[in-house]
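Now for one record.
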Amino acid sequence: MSLARKQLADAHRIVVKLGTHVVTHDGVELALGRVMGLVESMARLRQAGREVVLVSSGAVGMGMRVLGLNERPRSLGMRQACAAVGQGHLMSVYTQAFAQLGVTTAQVLLTQEDLADRDRALCLRTTLMRLLELGVVPVLNENDSVSVRELVEYKRTQTQTGISGAASAASAAAPGAPELAGFGDNDGLSARVAVSLDADLLVLLTNVGGLFTANPRTDPAAVRLSELATIDDAALARASGGSLGGTGGMASKLLAARLASSEGTAVLIAGGGEPRIIERAMDGEDVGTLVGAFERRPARIRHIAVSARHRGALVVNEGALRALGDSKASLLPIGVVAVDGNFEEGDVVEIRDGSGRVHGRGLVNYPSDACRALAGRHSDDIDAILGWRGYDALITRDNLVMGAV
């Protein structure tokens, strides 16, 4: 067993993406037995103390089944209508399946703007982190009923073969960055969510057992690649186009894996139809294709610590500094003695001591006027002072960088 495989057992925060052909038979009929098996695996992870986020495709197919449609609609409006009908049914399946195992779920629908906009991305991350803290499994999907990109992507993938479409999408991203310009599929969504949450592992489950040296459906000599150090052009060249009934395909998964792994999240691409695939992977068994994570500070933390311009400062007392440094605590209002500058919610501010020395930086949850009013007060007094309540902390721990900044 390789070291990279052994390290999967230590993964605490895990994002699992289920492809259309894992959730359904031929993109339409719900694969109930398969879904129930995967739900049971994820529930075991949650009950063992791990944090699990589920990203699921299949809403359009579910809507087609409910509406009695045998062929995937060609018009965008009809596909959006199918998604609107199917999303509720799909979420109902997950809610009931997890509930039978004692696990609560929460539905979160996203558009690409939710992660592109800093303020909205911050709110999304905070919501997901709170859900994970409560032991909930968030179930995410792109909001197809209002989002155009993913559904349009289906038409593109049905008219292309090979890697050309995915390669074009990759080359359109910022030079030197393995980013996806938008979701376009739930593979890209799951990668962006994994990076946003600083996930340890992203599991992309599909209808093939990983990346092979050739197409295993047409070449009996194709060999599965157990591990990849990086996603290069040779790896992309082995992938084929989109999948029938879905918007992804192996090319899409490799692009998502490249994005996530470059930001510190390991990625496993594996067959969702294989028995106990998630448990076997977590036990270190040689299944699927594992893409190792780069050792680098997550982009969001780098942005807070280095890239973002600070808009002001919170001056804190010695007790707060000890709690922030030693106990990894959030910054509560009672630890703040002064506020410097004018800033808005979501801006980066410095954490200073009384002498003016900078000890850290963070994304602040309240504007400067509110921080001044709350300084030195208990969190329980926030409602009475402001007339509203957002967060107990002025800066939550996951949005705080202490030490060298």
The first helix runs from residue 3 to 7. The chain is about 40% helix and 20% strand. The CA atoms of residues 42 and 52 lie 7 Å apart. The radius of gyration is 22 Å.
